[in-house]
């Protein structure tokens, strides 16, 4: 698919995904938001809670560090415990250090006061932010995310991640949303391959894909047409339906 | 966590994951199987249906090509349509070409005969296998996966992927399964951070993690202890429960 939309990657940090304990959902949510708001998500990576691996991944993905993408979003590893090492790794990748951020500290202090809790040393860990970063609002539990270079660092707890996404994405310069149309046919993928390829050749500026599935009544295929030019997407879907006889 | 188990990565190939249309499930399933059978999954990547990106990812991940891991498992892109380009990309990464594999052709022919279908040119695409690869059995729909170097190529349709995993994994030399114990506490992560860190320091050969969550009754945290030495994992969990007062 031809696109001049900003490119993006997602980096998920978490042993619990790699061990199979938790099924990842934040990247899926953000993928939907990015597609709807005109960002071109091109890669997702999941790495373990390991300093060197996180640093290497950020350098490979953050365009301001010579990495591959205009924007990088991370999920996980910014809590109060010893295994929350994302802030330090992001700082290292960006050639800076971590300090207690006054505004982040004030946000945590305010929340602790409101809930009658002490701002302990562990809670204060969540105000450790790379020098030069700006904060991402956390409407759920106060401890902020942050942005530095092209890297936008968000929490792993799904409710908090979603809140941060809701705050952050409208503040980023997006592109044109992708129009996506799909049709389900009750045939195997092989039976529609030729028609699909013919239409894909005619509409080479769009992305045409086929996704086979199996359910109780046998095999079927979802045919999907995606592109930035809504009229072209509509034309391609009409051409596809006509060829297939729908 | 200390481990001399074989390391592994998963590469998911599919625009439909990156667009947010489909929530990825194959990597989650395989992560659980790998953990249970003594493989150390260290990275998951999702890339688009793009030849160069697939080739680059395979080279970065397949240990026999200078990549980072002992084993690489891929999901997706081996069907009969024009956007199924995984076999060509895997061949290119491994410095070989794709040919019709006689055994794969025979499997497809047999299935077509059984179902009264013609082995069309599109269906025959699924017998295109990199030269030098061995086949992975497909109990669901005949079209095989394949293994070359450290790369094991499987289908994206979940039922077929799972069938291939069931066939393949017992044939690979695994290591020791990870023992994992978890306990849920109805406290925020900050309130258990100190105890967790103390026990993690005592049991530095194990992996101790904390995973906060929020539900209807407020915040809680899952504490997880993982390691290869089952007795040590049991000891660490007992120590953790004692410190926290459970």
From TrEMBL, chains A, B:
Residue ranges of the TM segments: none
UniProt signal peptide: none
Pfam families referenced in this protein's UniProt entry, alphabetically: FLAD1_M, MoCF_biosynth
Sequence ranges assigned to domain MoaB/Mog in this UniProt record: 9-176
Protein name, per record: Competence/damage-inducible protein A
Species annotation: Paracoccus liaowanqingii
């Amino acid at each position: 698919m031809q696109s001049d939309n900003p490119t993006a990657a997602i980096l998920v940090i978490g042993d619990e995904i790699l061990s199979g304990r938790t099924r990842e959902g934040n990247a899926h949510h953000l993928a939907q938001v990015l597609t709807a708001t005109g960002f071109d998500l091109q890669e997702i990576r999941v790495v373990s809670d390991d300093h060197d691996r996180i640093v290497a991944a950020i350098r490979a993905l953050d365009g301001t560090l010579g990495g591959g993408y205009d924007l990088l979003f991370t999920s996980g590893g910014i809590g109060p415990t010893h295994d929350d090492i994302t802030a330090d790794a992001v700082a290292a990748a960006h050639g800076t250090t971590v300090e207690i951020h006054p505004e982040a500290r004030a946000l945590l202090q305010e929340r602790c006061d409101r809930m009658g809790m002490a701002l302990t040393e562990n809670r204060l860990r969540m105000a450790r932010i790379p020098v030069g970063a700006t904060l991402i609002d956390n409407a759920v539990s106060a401890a902020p995310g942050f942005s530095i270079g092209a890297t936008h660092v968000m929490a792993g707890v799904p409710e908090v991640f979603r809140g941060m996404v809701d705050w952050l994405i409208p503040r980023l310069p997006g592109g044109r949303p992708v129009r996506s149309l799909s049709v389900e046919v009750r045939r195997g993928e092989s039976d529609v391959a030729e028609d699909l390829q013919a239409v894909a050749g005619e509409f080479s500026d769009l992305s045409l894909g086929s996704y086979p599935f199996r359910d109780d009544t046998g095999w079927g295929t979802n045919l999907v047409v995606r592109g930035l030019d809504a009229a072209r997407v509509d034309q391609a879907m009409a051409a596809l339906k006509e060829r297939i006889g729908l």
